[in-house]
Amino acid sequence: MAKKDKSYRRAMEELQLELASLNRWLRHGGQRLVVVFEGRDAAGKGGTIKAITESMDTRGYRIASLPKPSETETTQWYFQRYVEHLPSAGELVLFDRSWYNRAVVEPAMGFCTKAQYKAFMAAVPAFEKLLTDDGIILLKYWLAVDQEQQEERFSERAKDPLKRWKLSRNDLASREKYEEIGHLRDVMIERTHRPNAPWFVVDYNDQKRGRVNLIRHLLEQIPRHDVNIPEPKLPKLKGKPKTEHVTSKALWVPDTAG
């Protein structure tokens, strides 16, 4: 194994312990945490979210990755379908793209009107202030990737049968919008960065390095969150260990793994 990979795995093992502790801290104290992940297609949002939740109690977090709005949802208040995914006490919610679709993706791809974009940009700071005033901790990350690196990842996805599903028509169309998306990103950050709802930009040209930097930074933004679970003492079993027994042999799945 390469030295770089060993260093990454070692760092991630240490971070997993801290993330598990954060998970327990949220549940123990009833805090609510929202982390927004934005960035270009193939930047690494999904992989980072998987890394964050790898060792967490599945009951303590949720991932919100919303599909294209339905006909009914397009008639609702824009933030409405996102509000229902906000955390309850003790929960972490990770948004794989969020309401900020309207700040970058939608205007770049022509999915919203200029009036809708303008209204959103005026409303979002007030919306986020309502969230944080109610006690929700809100962190927002933009995963930055150069166009050359993005093109390499698109090519890799196209060649890999297990990754082709990640390439959508919008992904392919966005390739011609690199500069426009960058401009919209800059406007978004300038107009929606607030002390209560800050933006942070992470270099994701190297995804593994980006994950480590982002997770370390995320943990640093949260108040001290050490909640240890004492090692339990397992009582000695009475008698000999039992064998799993199912009456009908026909129900067993054949062992083909060997």
TrEMBL record:
Transmembrane regions: none
GO MF annotation terms: polyphosphate kinase activity
UniProt cross-references to InterPro entries, sorted A to Z: P-loop_NTPase, Polyphosphate_phosphotransfera, PPK2-related, PPK2_PA0141
Top-level taxonomic group: Bacteria
Gene3D superfamilies for this protein: P-loop containing nucleotide triphosphate hydrolases (3.40.50.300)
Residue segments, region Disordered: 230-258
Keywords, ordered alphabetically: Kinase, Transferase
UniProt keyword 4Fe-4S present: no
Biological processes annotated in GO: phosphorus metabolic process
Domain Polyphosphate kinase-2-related: 4-227
UniProt-listed Enzyme Commission number(s): 2.7.4.-
Job description of the protein: Uses inorganic polyphosphate (polyP) as a donor to convert GDP to GTP or ADP to ATP.
Family label: Belongs to the polyphosphate kinase 2 (PPK2) family. Class I subfamily.
Quaternary structure and interacting proteins, as annotated: Homotetramer.
The name this protein goes by in its record: ADP/GDP-polyphosphate phosphotransferase
Organism whose genome encodes this protein: Dyella jiangningensis
Taxonomic lineage of the native organism: Bacteria, Pseudomonadati, Pseudomonadota, Gammaproteobacteria, Lysobacterales
